[in-house]
Amino acid sequence: MSTSTERAVGARTLQAGHVVAIGALLCAAAVVERVPRFASGHRYLLCHASSALDHLTLTAFALVMAAGVAALTGAVMMQARDAHGAALPVVWLVVVAVLLVAADGVDAHGEALAAQLSATPFNQGACDYVPQDYVATPGWFFW
């Protein structure tokens, strides 16, 4: 009788594999969303390359990768501990979600900066040889 109770309780808890699977799925969706080929956000043509936009893009990408590492770390910690509380997987999924929300916030700031930079008059003779094409990530949390 105790084994059926343990199975029923175990079936309702979040396992390490679930943390990795959910975290990896969210991170993969966030990466695909940021690939220019699949991005459906606004496009901005910038007269001059912007190192600030490059920095924001790399920061957002680093946050997405950190979310993936957090999902994997959470799963490893859950496997390493024999007795973990029910809150541990939820905490790691919250960490993943916070990092992905932060990445979307950085992308939203980058889009605002791109809109501001593209609003300057476009003078072909004064622009870089190849103007920078910036594709904004639509994001899930900031529109």
In short:
The chain is mainly alpha-helical and 143 residues long.
Describe what you observe in this structure.
This protein starts with a helix and ends in an 8-residue tail after the last strand. By secondary structure, the protein is mainly alpha-helical. 64% of the residues lie in helices and 6% in strands. It is elongated, with a radius of gyration of 21 Å. It contains four helices and two strands, in the order ααβααβ. α2 runs antiparallel to α3 (51-80). Strands 1-2 form a two-stranded antiparallel ribbon.
| Helix-strand pattern | HHEHHE
Largest sheet: number of strands, sense, barrel closure? 2 strands, antiparallel
Low-confidence stretches: 1-11
Number of strands: 2
Can you tell me the overall shape?
Answer: elongated
| Rg (C-alpha, Å) | 21 Å
What's the mean pLDDT score? Answer: 77
Intertermini distance = 52 Å
User: In what range is the share of β-strand residues?
Assistant: 5-15%
Using brief descriptors, characterize the structure shown.
two-stranded antiparallel sheet; 143 residues; disordered N terminus
Topology:
Elements: H1 2-12, H2 16-34, E1 43-46, H3 51-80, H4 87-118, E2 132-135
Antiparallel strand pairs: 1-2
